[in-house]
Amino acid sequence: DWTSSAFVETTIADIQATVGNDKVVLALSGGVDSSVAAVLLHKAIGTNLHCIFVDNGLLRKNEYESVLEQYKDFGLNIKGVDAKDKFLSQLAGVEDPEQKRKIIGRVFIEVFDEESHLIQDVKWLAQGTIYPDIIESVSVKGPSATIKSHHNVGGLPDFMKLKVVEPLKTLFKDEVRRVGTALGLESFILGRHPFPGPGLGIRIIGEVTAEKVAILQDADKIYIDNLKEAGLYDQVWQAGAIFLPVRSVGVMGDERTYENVIALRAVESLDGMTADWCHLPYPVLAKISNEIINKVKGINRVVYDISSKPPATIEWE
Ligand code: XMP
């Protein structure tokens, strides 16, 4: 007879007893787990919780600004860190997906370490670890940009010498969502599609550049906005656009174009381990395709991914 309100109450008391008046640092990602952990800790210890939200330049369009704003509305003591250039310059020239993941994870650790250093006397590192993270590795393709999967990147960064507090570590995903609802988080975090830690970095096939990120952000926004407008967003488990570094011929007025391709992916799934491609209505796909081709400079062709997992994965990299 587990109830979310009882969990919230006892966990707040536990956190207060454990952490006392110490300062705690936590990395927010915009995802469900870290957000619920943050709001819970905030209720327990207020501004002794220091949240850090890193802009890796690989988030969805306007996501950094809007999520940061909403966290602030929740009263969180949060610092946004613009590290776009750092990530992009480290990714320059790199094409291999696993290499890109490693770089994104490493740069994240560096930025987070530097930032947590700036907080005087911080004693604890809070993480949104949930039960399935402990019993199995959730990421199927390699380490995600979470802290826990990078324990062995050489000498430990300083923040890793902190004591760890993980208030959600006994919970399954649906319980985390229920706790989030009890905390009043449904409006902005709980209904969002899963989004990988390396973000658009693994939705640009091959080398990531600022120009490709901008193109993909625009196309992805048109796609997601249209899904919402058509009332389909909540029926889809995960959706996103992918930038293909393939050029094909098109015509625009009297001119021949030779530009890149955007692939659209939308899947139904329970846990991401298997997935079926969504049978999105043709009129919706037609509208999205027209809008992307007409509005996004550099794209003259849109394709829809009709592969299920297995054998295809949800992400293309
Ligand atoms: P795949 O592509 O393996 O993805 O079918 C399954 C789910 O995992 C997400 N994913 C990741 N999440 N770091 C993450 O945090 C990663 O490196 C990563 N790779 C895939 C993917 O978005 C999907 O929800």
UniProtKB/TrEMBL annotation:
One of its GO terms (cellular component) is cytosol. Coiled coil: none annotated. Pathway: Purine metabolism; GMP biosynthesis; GMP from XMP (L-Gln route): step 1/1. Keywords: ATP-binding, Glutamine amidotransferase, GMP biosynthesis, Ligase, Nucleotide-binding, Purine biosynthesis. GO terms for molecular function: ATP binding; GMP synthase activity. Residues 2-192 form the GMPS ATP-PPase domain. Its EC number is 6.3.5.2. The keyword Ligase applies. It comes from the Bacteria. It catalyses: XMP + L-glutamine + ATP + H2O = GMP + L-glutamate + AMP + diphosphate + 2 H(+). Transmembrane segments: none annotated. ATP binds at S29, G30, G31, V32, D33, S34, S35. Catalyzes the synthesis of GMP from XMP. Homodimer. This is GMP synthase [glutamine-hydrolyzing]. The chain holds residues 193 to 509 of 509 of the full protein.
